[in-house]
Amino acid sequence: MRLREMVLCGLFIALVAVGALIRIPVGSDVYTLQFMFTLLAGLLLGGRLGALAVGTYVLMGLVGIPVFASGGGPSYVLQPTFGYLVGFTVQAWVCGKMARQGEGEVTLGRLLTINLVGMVIVYVLGISYFWLSSNYLIQAPIGFWAALWYCGVLQVVPDFLLCLGAAFVGLRCRKAGIWV
């Protein structure tokens, strides 16, 4: 791994950690910028390095560094939202791989489409783990459709805006040469 790649991975580890702590209240919900930074990690670093950066962030939280939105530590695996962290890592890898296919043509629409695929990955893993964890680990039963409604449908518009923002920033960074 070259020095530039290590520096960019470190930068994205820090951005994802800070993004998890930036809380934006919208009505009764609170949103973070964590999702946008994991999308950007995949787009700008590629699949391998993007997943490495996001995976390192997750590992840091699991060893006890309080970088997650609700703290950290090994017991975080039992949190209903842990599936989203796994989803972020998979999403960074998939989006990074997709962004590198057909390198010649990188457009805002293409990056937005890639980010939307990433959003689906995060939703599938995150909502599934949320439902399973709520019903079988912490004994706080929730119906599948209720979990899908609260964790998916109600989050689509803000997450779409984050996908759009990440696509715009990703395109600008590509033009500026920040693309590994």
UniProtKB/TrEMBL annotation:
Which residues are listed as membrane-spanning? 30-46, 51-69, 81-99, 111-132, 144-171
User: How does the protein's chain sit in the membrane according to the entry?
Assistant: Multi-pass membrane protein
What is the predominant subcellular site recorded for this chain? membrane
Q: Where in the cell is it found?
A: Cell membrane
Pfam families (UniProt xref): BioY
Q: Which GO terms describe its cellular component?
A: plasma membrane
Task: State one molecular function term (GO).
Answer: biotin transmembrane transporter activity
Q: Which UniProt keywords apply?
A: Cell membrane, Membrane, Transmembrane, Transmembrane helix, Transport
Source superkingdom: Bacteria
Into which family does the record put it? Belongs to the BioY family.
Protein name per the record:
Biotin transporter
The major lineage groups are:
Bacteria, Bacillati, Bacillota, Negativicutes, Acidaminococcales
